[in-house]
Amino acid sequence: MKKKFLEKKLKKIAYERIDILMNLAEEEAKKGNWERAKRYVFLARKIAMKMRIKFPKKWKRRICKKCGTFLIYGKNARVRVRSKTYPHVVITCLNCGAIYRIPMIREKKEKMKEIKNRNNQKK
C-alpha cells in the first residue's frame, strides 16, 4: 500500500518537473537561446524515461524527435494541413528537416457524427 502511494507521488512530482522544464525551454527558445532550450528538453525527456512515464502530449508534439530542439511554429518549424489521401497535419523541423505527420482521424469521425445528427434532426 505504502509503495503504491509513494510511486504515485513520485510520478506526480516527475510530471510537475517536466512541465516546469518545458515551460523554461519555451521561454528560452522564444528568446533565441536554442542550446539552453535543447538542454531543458533533454533533461525533461530524461526524467520521463527514468520514471517510466509517458511524455505529456501537449509537449510531445513541440519537440523534434530527430534533433531534440524545441519547436516554435513559424520560427523553426513549419505546420501544414493536408487532406489528399487521409487528413493529417504535417510538422517540418526547419533545423534538421525531419517530418512528422499527425492524423486527424478522430476529428473526421466527430465531423461525420455531427453531420449525421443534423440530418436526423431535420427529418
Task: Tell me the number of structural domains.
Answer: 1
CA radius of gyration: 19 Å
Which structural class do you get from the secondary structure elements? alpha+beta
Query: How confident overall, as mean pLDDT?
Result: 89
Helix percentage? 55-70%
Specify the CATH class.
Answer: Mainly Alpha
Number of strands: 3
CATH H level, superfamily name = Immunoglobulin FC, subunit C
User: In one word, what is the shape?
Assistant: flat
CATH architecture: Up-down Bundle
Order of helices and strands: HHHEEEH
Percentage of residues in DSSP E strands: 5-15%
User: Spatial order of the strands in the main sheet?
Assistant: 1-2-3
Number of helices: 4
pLDDT < 50 stretches: none
Give a description of the structure.
- This protein has a single domain, classed as Single alpha-helices involved in coiled-coils or other helix-helix interfaces (Up-down Bundle), CATH 1.20.5.
- The protein is built from four helices and three strands; from the N terminus they run H-H-H-E-E-E-H.
- It has helices at residues 2-31, 34-51, 57-60, 105-122; strands at residues 77-82, 88-93, 99-103.
- It has a three-stranded antiparallel β-sheet, with no helix packed on it.
- A hairpin with a 5-residue loop joins strand 1 (77-82) and strand 2 (88-93).
- Helix 1 packs antiparallel against helix 2 (34-51).
- The model has no long low-confidence stretch (mean pLDDT 89).
- Part of ribonuclease P, a protein complex that generates mature tRNA molecules by cleaving their 5'-ends.
